[in-house]
Amino acid sequence: MAKKDQDGTEDVSPVSRRDFFKTVGVGTFATSVISAVDAEAQATAPRAFGPGDVPIKLTINGRTQALNVEPRMTLLDAVRNKLDQTGTKRVCDRGSCGACTMIVDGRAVYSCSTLAIDTQGKTVRTVEGLAQGTALHPVQQAFCDSDGLMCGFCTPGFVVATVALLEKIPN
Q: How far is CA 16 from CA 2, 3, 80, in A?
């Protein structure tokens, strides 16, 4: 038996008023749950950078440096092009020759294949940071004394790699 409205016409809607409000309540609840899950996913997702320059801070040879770099910029490019420290050289640009070696948190890394943005909060040492004033690091001095320089282009990377090795395994 169909219900009649106040004006006497029959209500032929298949959805009752009670069913309508149940649906609205469930829809609102589902929307709030989905929104909370989406907000949590965004909070735990890695922060996206770029495509333009982003500000970063690097600790290079004991000094904190503020730079604006593209997220794709390598540590080698940041140090050479932004900080004008040109002791570390680009040779193969593939991370296979070792000429671009820097020490990051006590570990030798190829700076041509390490992103500058990934070294934030870490200590980076280059060949320029090995000497104490005018006194060469003992490894640098040994290279000079033994005439181990060859043409000299790759030598900074070899010196830094040797220092990293000797610091890890002193004997």
A: 11, 10, 73
Q: How many helices (H) and strands (E) does the chain have?
A: 4, 5
Q: Residue 129, CB half-sphere, CA atoms under 13 Å: how many?
A: 19
- Rounded to 5 degrees, φ, ψ at 60 are -110, 120
The amino acid sitting at 89 is K
Q: Beta strands 123-125 and 101-104: pairing type? A: antiparallel
List CB contacts of 121: < 8 A, sequence separation 6 or more. 59
User: In terms of Cα–Cα distance, which of 28, 27, 2 is closest to 14?
Assistant: 2
DSSP-derived 3-state class of residue 20: helix
Query: Model-level pTM?
Result: 0.70
The separation between CA 99 and the C-alpha centre of its own chain, rounded to angstroms, equals: 22
End-to-end CA distance of the chain: 97
Residues 91 and 71: their CA atoms lie apart, in Å, by: 22
pLDDT tens digits for the chain (171 residues)? 556 656 666 666 677 777 766 676 666 766 776 776 666 666 666 666 768 899 999 999 999 999 999 999 999 999 999 999 999 999 988 888 899 999 999 999 999 999 999 999 999 999 999 999 999 999 999 998 998 877 878 899 999 999 999 999 998
